[in-house]
From TrEMBL:
CDD domains: MTH1175
Pfam families for the chain: Nitro_FeMo-Co (PF02579)
Species, as recorded: Fusibacter paucivorans
Every Dinitrogenase iron-molybdenum cofactor biosynthesis domain range: 10-97
Coiled coil, from the record: none
Domain of life from the UniProt record: Bacteria
Protein name (Swiss-Prot/TrEMBL): NifB/NifX family molybdenum-iron cluster-binding protein
Amino acid sequence: MLKIAVASEGSIVTGHFGHCENFNIYESEGQKITKSSSVPNPGHRPGFLPNYLNDLNVNVIISGGMGGGAIDIFNEKGIEVVTGATGDAAQAAANYLNGSLKSTGSVCHEHQHHGDC
């Protein structure tokens, strides 16, 4: 089983991971999503969210953009980071499972949301 978290605003992939409204969580067997749920963002503070999602046993995190510090923590925990995603969260998870969603490596360098964040 694979567990995918999509940083979202409702059902849409968010542009900035840390300030998302919720995480849509999708569990899959093979390329099929077998279960979905949503958890509210418990709050943005440095280093907290990667550990929070690790505690939920997430294997993959999908977002529009994400700060380098969060990416580093996810990498340390063996959680795959996919950035540059847009649109419907469930579709992004499905696209990841079928291999059509590729990370753009979109890293937020400014916490004031300059550029694409």
